[in-house]
Amino acid sequence: MSETDLELLARYTGHEAEDAFAELVRRHVDLVYSAALRQVGSPQLAEEVAQSAFLKLARHAAEFAPGTVIPAWLYQVTRREAIDVVRHEARRQLREQIATQMNAIDATAADWEQIEPLLDEAMQALEETDRTAILLRFFGNKSLREVGHTLGTSDDAAQKRVSRALERLREFLAERGVAVGAGGLGLILSANAVQAAPASLAATISTAAFVGTAAAAPILLTTAKTIAMTTLQKYLLTATLVAAIGVGIYEATQNSLLRSRNQALEQQKASLVEQTQRLQRERDQATNRLALLAEDVAKARKNPAEVMQLRGQVGSLIRENKAAGEKSALNKITSDPASRKAMRETQKLGMAALYGDLTRRLALKPEMTGKFNDLLADTVMDNIDLITQALHDGKSPTETEQIFAAADAALLEKVQALLGDEAAGQYKDYTQNLATTLTSAQFAASLTGEEPSKQGKVQQFRQAMQDAIATTLKNDGLPPDFQVLPILNFANIASEPEAERNLKLLDEIYANVAARGSAFLTPEELASFQSFRTGYINNSRMALTMNRNLMAPLSKSAPTP
After folding, report:
1. Could you tell me where in the chain the CATH 1.10.10.10 domains are found?
2. Is 4 left (phi over 0), alpha (psi -120 to 50) or beta?
3. Taking the CB of the first residue and of the last residue of the chain, which one, N or C, has fewer CB atoms within 10 A?
């Protein structure tokens, strides 16, 4: 008869029998690994959690009471270890995200003005493969997977190739007196290397191609689709409120505006950091002074006049401390007219990109397009104010939901008044389908096969997304126009419970899409989508948390990891 788990543990502790512990691992490793994988979403992290859980089993092997169920004990330990790993990973990714945004802001227009005259000479000095890697990665905005596929190498090899090529570009520039880090150089190239061609040029080429040969039409069509897809991927993040402090650098097609925006954003960054530090110092100083005065009060109780004077000072300091704690990190920007205007312009660029397809579909004239984009930008700024106030007042999830539902209804009325009933209906449908549009655009880069096959998969994927959204919203008792993209639903920034509900909702939608996608996606494509699903949920949670901390009063902000 085989030994029980407790007997194996006893033999392991009593006789240092490694085979006994190995048998325990063999029995339960599948349980532990599967539980870890469900919670951390990464095979590599799940392996780390499993190793940690069994190490704790070995460490506490002599402490188990009779009747202990080892699988149940391991399951609980695995859950705790997984939670710790997820928190650590989230903090690490948040730090990296903030560092990336801060580095992006530092990639100023002045850097580009020094690099631009030397760029093509520097590119020509590279080996052909290195030059191709740079062109694909930073000029074409391709993922490392796409770069590797084009060069016939793995993702890791593509990353090394790109890093090496960037370093050679940096060395070339340094020899000519232009100092810039390799990481900063990549950001500058992404933002500036490709500029939008005049609209008339595209029309001229299209006309010439059509007249010259019908065979050229599919090529031009494919190119147009590629450009549109790349642009859409670039602008995916511009709708987030994080754009207020960093995303402007990605507006490559708005290069003439980008340079002034970068300067404004850098000023905003400096103001934001300075304001946050100043408010924290004021709060700490007030707290310290309050403590000292409390001691003085205790010593001076026998002197009524002095007590009254100290009480007045204490009351003043309490009010000062409260006022400092009630201000948010974004308060400097939102309260200063010039900074707020610059922030609004950044949001206008993001909204123009996000709703560009709609304005073209509606054939709006430039003047009307400008008014529409102004309306969207003003709404974003109004929502920032609403978020800040809701966080200050400590609104409940229900109250928060009502606030932003009313804001959405007010915006629809304004769109209706500006564009008319039919256009307002199209705006509502377009906004409702943003999750499908943007997710499909992002995931399209992971599809394989010939172009017709890929396009067919994209259409099936879009339909699966639409069906999954409709079904999930209905099952959860939510209206069909509920915005499922977490970062575009402003209530999620104002309320952490609302954010978690939305994230869970989106994860359910992605799970339904994955189940349906098994019928038309390859195993590799399906695995890629599952990886995208986990990454997008985690990144959205971090983006919401960061925005919430920026807009919450300092006294209520979550501690920085």
Report:
1. 107-194
2. beta
3. N
Helix (H, G, I), strand (E, B) or coil at 88: helix
The span from the CA of 453 to the CA of 322, in Å, is: 61
Question: Under a CB-based contact definition with an 8 Å cutoff, are residues 344 and 377 in contact?
Answer: yes
Half-sphere exposure of 164 (CA within 13 A, CB side): 14
Which residue spans of the chain are classified as CATH 1.10.1740.10? 5-102
Classify the C-alpha dihedral 337-342-343-347 as positive or negative. positive
Task: Provide the β-strand partners of residue 328.
Answer: 553
Question: Dihedral through CA 434, CA 439, CA 440, CA 441, nearest 10?
Answer: 90
Q: What is the value of pTM for the model shown? A: 0.47
Question: What value, to the nearest 5°, has the Cα angle with vertex 449 and ends 446 and 450?
Answer: 120
Crossing angle between the packed helical segments 421-432 and 434-444, to the nearest 10 degrees = 50
- SS3 category, 328: strand
DSSP 3-state of 240: coil
Work out whether the CA dihedral 481, 485, 491, 492 comes out positive or negative: positive
| 468: confidence class by pLDDT, cuts 50, 70, 90 | very high
Give the integer Cα–Cα distance in Å for 158 and 460. Answer: 30
CA 500 to the chain's CA centroid: 15
First-last CA distance in the chain: 52
Tokens 């209530």 belong to which residue?
491
Question: Is the Cα torsion angle 281, 286, 288, 289 positive or negative in sign?
Answer: positive
> What length is written for the chain?
561
271 contacts 333 by C-beta, under 8 angstroms: yes
CATH class of 5-102: mainly alpha
pLDDT for position 277? 67
Please give the C-alpha separations between residue 342 and each of 85, 266, 339, in angstroms, as whole numbers: 39, 11, 5
CATH fold for domain 107-194: Arc Repressor Mutant, subunit A (1.10.10)
CA 12 – CA 21 distance, rounded (Å): 6
Q: Which residues of 217-244 are buried (b: 16+ CB within 10 A; e: fewer)?
A: eeeeeeeeeebebbbbbbbbbbbbbbbb
Residue 553 per-residue DSSP state: B
Strand, helix or coil for residue 4: coil
For 517, half-sphere exposure in the C-beta direction (CA atoms, 13 angstrom radius) is 28
pLDDT one-digit tens code per residue, 237-256: 334 454 444 333 333 334 44
Contacts 24+ apart (CB under 8 A), 350-357: 350/235, 350/238, 350/239, 350/243, 350/247, 351/238, 351/239, 351/376, 351/377, 351/380, 353/231, 353/234, 353/235, 353/238, 353/251, 354/235, 354/238, 354/239, 354/434, 355/427, 355/430, 356/235, 357/430, 357/437
Percent of the chain residues topping a pLDDT of 70:
69
pLDDT score recorded for residue 246: 38
